[in-house]
Specification:
The protein is an alpha+beta fold. Helices cover about 40% and strands about 25% of the residues. The protein is built from 13 helices and 17 strands. The chain starts with a strand and ends with a strand. It comes from Duganella fentianensis.
Length: about 525
């Protein structure tokens, strides 16, 4: 991903671009109002890209503290309070937990770091904020050198890494691979002469011993990353001693291991003399690291990242839509071809059918009539009226009332209006009238009526019991769904309009009270 890389020292800011894994640019802007104005003009002429700001300042302080081991949000709040108490005058603060102590209550060992002079950084951040440049992070060459030590595989217990950068010689002390202290020394002394690197290393070692970062008798392994041309002079200044060991690494060799690539002569010449391009390459290839906080200045980067996600999402959605549309067009074309094939097959079958039908003798009726006849036959088989259902209902009621003896049944199918169809004319030589389709169960099953005549077994003079038996029998029939029961003739007619009559003398043994019921069932 393309990005801006800015290298800030106490005197100037150098602007680079990172594109396709290659470093280019190197425009330099002085740390004054004119330099900042030219820097803003430079940014106006560049495409909008995320930016990383790498600092190499003298005003960077490091402190080591031990705090109680507290996990979660409480531990983070505790460290933030200690960090704020240590550096109240600057918002650019950072902490790193470097493990736990081996004895006692096993407190956390924490390295506190801060840029103690915000004025060295703030004007450049204000310019980036004014132009809404998506600044992703603020970094330090000292904190970044931890990654450099790991890349080079330097595993000495007491390691002093020396690199020459724009601001001078950076000396960073590592204990078991963890940064503990760093100082920046000017490359030229007050007399205008190059500093003696061996002397400066001795001063650093003396300080480390005084603050008990190193014990007496421990060997300090100093690794010097310098150009090949400067190595003979530096080797003359740096002599091994009982507690000091020097090792030189060629700057070009280290840059190659970090995959520094550039097509510009200016960048290559600078990379052969100073470690700035090498450190910028290391920063550009790092992912997900956070060092000094930016506060509200970082909001432009968050908005840029959201826009980028939306752009990529829209592109993915558009691509998916095009693929879906192409698939639909392909399926439509395939379906059209299949439709043409099916139509051709249908035409072929139709032609063969007509040829076969033309060769066959004429049929009695058409296919449609035959299909209709089959449908009518099926409807007659399932919906034609029959007395079986009503006979089953009567049989069930007779089982419940054994005092009733069946004498006669008169079953008929009823028309749609509920009327009984007229009986066909017989014996006059004329053709009987056709039967209505409704009586045959077309389109629905017709209603049916049944005239039931029965007698009541028992004493013929006990008309109250006869009436009770008839009513019980009628109620048993009426319990069937869609069946209505009407009394046509009771065993004893008690209406006022009917004359009561009887015969004196002994009753016949075969005489029983008779009654008749009219049953109507609507399936």
């Amino acid at each position: 991903m393309s990005k801006h890389l800015f290298y800030l020292s106490s005197e100037q800011l150098a602007a680079y671009q990172w594109q396709g894994g290659r470093l280019s640019g190197g425009s330099v802007f002085s740390h004054d109002a004119d330099g900042i104005a030219r820097f803003m003009d430079y940014l106006d002429s560049q495409p909008l890209m995320p930016a990383l700001l790498l600092t190499d300042l003298v005003e960077e302080d490091f402190q080591r503290i031990n705090v109680p081991h507290v996990g979660g949000m409480g531990g983070r709040k505790l460290l933030q309070r200690r960090l704020q108490q240590q550096y109240r005058e600057t918002p650019y603060r950072h902490y790193e937990i470097q493990g736990r102590m081996a004895d006692g209550r096993r407190d956390d060992m924490v390295l506190l770091a801060a840029l103690t002079n915000p004025a060295s950084v703030q004007p450049w951040l204000d310019a980036l904020d004014q132009l809404q440049i998506p600044l992703a992070g603020l970094y330090s060459t000292t904190l970044l050198s931890t990654a450099l030590v790991h890349k080079l595989g330097l595993r000495d217990e007491h390691l002093l890494l020396l690199t020459q950068q724009t601001g001078g010689w950076r000396q960073s002390y590592f204990q078991n691979g963890q940064l503990k202290f760093s100082r920046l020394t000017a490359a030229i002394n007050r007399d205008g002469q190059p500093i003696d690197l061996g002397t400066e290393t001795a001063k650093t070692q003396q300080f480390l011993t005084s603050v008990r970062l190193m014990g007496r008798g421990n060997v300090l392994h100093a690794v010097v990353i310098a150009p090949v041309a400067s190595t003979p002079v530096l080797e003359g200044q740096c002599e091994d001693g009982p507690e000091t060991s020097f090792r030189f690494l060629a700057l070009r060799h280290v840059a190659t291991r970090l995959r520094l690539r550039s097509d510009e002569l200016q960048v290559n010449e600078l990379a052969a003399q100073l470690a700035d391009p090498m450190l910028l390459t290391l920063l550009a290839r790092q992912h997900g690291i956070r060092q000094y906080p930016l506060g509200s200045v970082r909001r432009h980067f968050k908005l840029w990242r959201i826009r980028r996600v939306l752009y990529w999402g829209s592109a993915a959605l558009g691509t998916a839509s095009l693929l879906w549309m192409g698939a639909n067009l392909w399926q439509a074309r395939d379906a059209q071809q299949q439709s043409g094939t099916l139509m051709a097959e249908a035409a072929s079958y139709d032609q063969r059918y007509r040829s076969v039908m033309a060769a066959m003798p004429p049929s009695v009726t058409s296919t449609a009539n035959m299909r209709a006849a089959v449908n009518v036959e099926r409807m007659l088989g399932t919906q034609a009226p029959a007395p079986l259902e009503m006979a089953a209902m009567v049989s069930a009621a007779l089982e419940q009332t054994p005092q009733i003896r069946l004498l006669q049944l008169d079953w008929k199918a009823m028309q749609g209006d509920g009327a009984t169809p007229p009986a066909p004319t017989q014996g006059d030589g004329r053709q009987a009238a056709p039967i209505s389709s409704a009586l045959l169960g077309i389109p629905t099953k017709p209603a049916q009526s049944l005239l039931l005549e029965a007698e009541i077994l028992g004493d013929q003079d006990d008309y109250r019991a006869a009436v009770d038996h008839m009513n019980r029998f009628a109620q048993q029939l009426a319990s069937n769904p869609r069946l209505t029961v009407a009394i046509d003739k009771p065993p004893l007619d008690t209406r006022s309009s009917v004359k009561l009559s009887a015969k004196a003398g002994p009753a016949s043994e075969d005489a029983h009270a008779r009654f008749s019921l009219i049953l109507v069932w609507k399936p």
